[in-house]
Amino acid sequence: MGAQTVGEKVFGVFNTILMIGLCFITLYPFVYVLFASFSDAAAFLQHRGLLLRPVGFNLDAYKAVFQNPMIITGYKNTLFYVTVGTAINLLMTAVGAYVLSRRNLFFRNFLMFAIVLTMVFHGGLIPSFMLINKLGMMNTPWALLIPGAISTFNLIIMRTAFQGIPVSLEESAKIDGAGELTILFRIIIPLSMPVIAVMILWYAVGHWNSYFSALVYLRDRTLYPLQLVLRDILIANSTDSMSTGAAADDKYAIGETIKYATIIISTLPIICLYPFLQKYFVKGVLIGAIKE
């Protein structure tokens, strides 16, 4: 390759500056929340402009957050919903995708049409509430896990990925006496790990961020997920009980830093998990999207 022209160098410098600016714009809100959570409450309220470091570094907000029993309870509940819910999601989605990927399945096109139709039309909140109530799942963890056991979009992606696996592998397994479940769990799923990793990421993040279903179906606060506890803190402004040792004039200031600390605590696990699955993300989506 020849030397770059002046125009190409200028274009490269412009692109570099543009990308640095976009990275700053993208990352700064998270950095702001992080620095605010480590800041002194009174000094933070008096600060104006960009926040490029903690103002009066202290850990009072995090101490107050971890002293709140609802935060710990919410964490435990959310971990249960994420692990059990994601396992149910993967099992149901994989079985459904495997069945729909069989070329000899009767009424396969009609079943796919009926499933895709649910992406456009659904009963709505009130019929769903009545159904959950009639099934006896109100105020139980199953109200958050069972109704959304299969995502139609994820089912279509996984089905398309399964269809891309050579039929000869399945035929060889059947000659050796393998049944359908053996083929699914010993051949299909191990060969579809990029898509499985993407499904784990999508389902886990969905469970971690979900709060609306809990808001509708749960009345027992001991079953609240972390995001619903976070909602009470951020929207309902229920930080007074977390700043009991502060004077009345300081409660508002401490409440502000407590909100930021709670956001960091609720976001950090997903941020730590994503780098381990990111390498599968693009590959899995492309496999599920372009093969047919």
UniProtKB/TrEMBL annotation:
<feature type="transmembrane region" description="Helical">
    <location>
        <begin position="183"/>
        <end position="205"/>
    </location>
</feature>
<feature type="transmembrane region" description="Helical">
    <location>
        <begin position="12"/>
        <end position="35"/>
    </location>
</feature>
<keyword id="KW-1003">Cell membrane</keyword>
<keyword id="KW-0813">Transport</keyword>
<comment type="similarity">
    <text>Belongs to the binding-protein-dependent transport system permease family.</text>
</comment>
<dbReference type="Pfam" id="PF00528">
    <property type="entry name" value="BPD_transp_1"/>
</dbReference>
<dbReference type="InterPro" id="IPR000515">
    <property type="entry name" value="MetI-like"/>
</dbReference>
<dbReference type="GO" id="GO:0005886">
    <property type="term" value="C:plasma membrane"/>
</dbReference>
<dbReference type="GO" id="GO:0055085">
    <property type="term" value="P:transmembrane transport"/>
</dbReference>
<feature type="transmembrane region" description="Helical">
    <location>
        <begin position="78"/>
        <end position="98"/>
    </location>
</feature>
<feature type="transmembrane region" description="Helical">
    <location>
        <begin position="110"/>
        <end position="130"/>
    </location>
</feature>
<keyword id="KW-0812">Transmembrane</keyword>
<keyword id="KW-1133">Transmembrane helix</keyword>
<feature type="domain" description="ABC transmembrane type-1">
    <location>
        <begin position="75"/>
        <end position="269"/>
    </location>
</feature>
<feature type="transmembrane region" description="Helical">
    <location>
        <begin position="258"/>
        <end position="277"/>
    </location>
</feature>
<protein>
    <submittedName>
        <fullName>Sugar ABC transporter permease</fullName>
    </submittedName>
</protein>
<dbReference type="InterPro" id="IPR035906">
    <property type="entry name" value="MetI-like_sf"/>
</dbReference>
<keyword id="KW-0472">Membrane</keyword>
<feature type="transmembrane region" description="Helical">
    <location>
        <begin position="142"/>
        <end position="162"/>
    </location>
</feature>
